Amino acid sequence: MTPRRAGGSAHGAPRRSRFHPRQLVYVLGLFVALLVVRDVFFPSGFVRTGETRTVFVRPGAKIDEIGSELVAQGLLRSPFAFSILARLTRTDRQLKAGQYTFHVGDSVLQILTVFVRGMSGQNLITIPEGQTAKDIAHLLAARLGTDPEDFLAATADSALVAEAGAPTGTTLEGYLFPETYAFLPTTTPQVIVRTMSLQTHKVLDEELARGGPIAVELSPHEILTLASIVEAEAQRPEERPRIAAVYLNRLRRHMLLQADPTVQYALGGHRARVFYSDLRVQSPYNTYLNPGLPPGPIGNPGRASIEAVLNPTPGSRDLFFVARGDGSHIFSETGEQHEEAVSRIRAQRAAGDSSVIMAAPPETSRTVTKPKPGSH
Fold first, then answer.
1. Which pLDDT tens digit goes with each residue over 130-154?
2. Which CATH superfamily is domain 30-122 in?
3. How far is the CA of 93 from the CAs of 57, 84, 86, 87, 110, in angstroms?
4. Predicted TM-score of the model (pTM)
5. For 331, phi and psi rounded to 5 degrees?
């Protein structure tokens, strides 16, 4: 008979497994891994909401600084996973400065991808065609916090004016190319103005390189000036070359341009209607009183209007045009034809023809009856 061991049984008691420190390491590792996975794929929660946050990354910002900003904006619980993943994927030195908009719930991978790609979409600043320097100043103030007065001062800075090749004593109105830019809240007005004027020169040089008689007939400053008038007049893209041809024909015949947008500019901005009394405003920009082109552009034209000036409708003999009210115009070669067109439109409006009285957009609509045949 086999003797029992003290505290044992006949069949032998099961031994208790010992807890090794290595097991604790495994458990902690698994826990950390789960936290990292959570922070990578669900950095602010398990639901992606429609709520957005805007993050500004300054030039030269370090990865840890960017991570802290993401935490402050509620996009991350912790910057740990963001910093680790950026270093593991070697994107920590590829993140671009800029202003970015994210949805709460975006994954770390999505956020990193956006930072590497750079600014896009709603974070870019788009300058519409035809805007004046004042319009642009207000747009930049709203989007970037740029001081409007500082921006306008930069457009009149003599060094920047000379650099852009504009005539001495003028501003850079007309040289601020309408385009989409990746400006930051920290971008200075001087850098903004220089960037926009350089883009104008780039586009102008490309168009002038195509040749043509207008490139010889008008100086670059005059091309931009006329293009700004075309930009303000044309509501339909296909009419730009024909409108340009009208003004070029009038210039060659030494006729007053009588362009309503120049009167509006002289009066300080866009107006829904131009009255007879407005046509007498004393200003070098009033082309109802002063022959030739105004001293400079009345807005900042886009490429299409510059192209129209350099490539007006071939063989056009039009000297007049009148707005129908739907964005299109009736063009005429003689004063008599023009007066007939004006009378016809007046009659249709009086009769309530909806195809004629339909209003144009407020920012470009003009209602004025020209007092003499020399008008358009």
1. 999 999 999 999 998 999 999 999 9
2. Endolytic murein transglycosylase (3.30.1490.480)
3. 13, 13, 9, 9, 17
4. 0.74
5. -100, 145
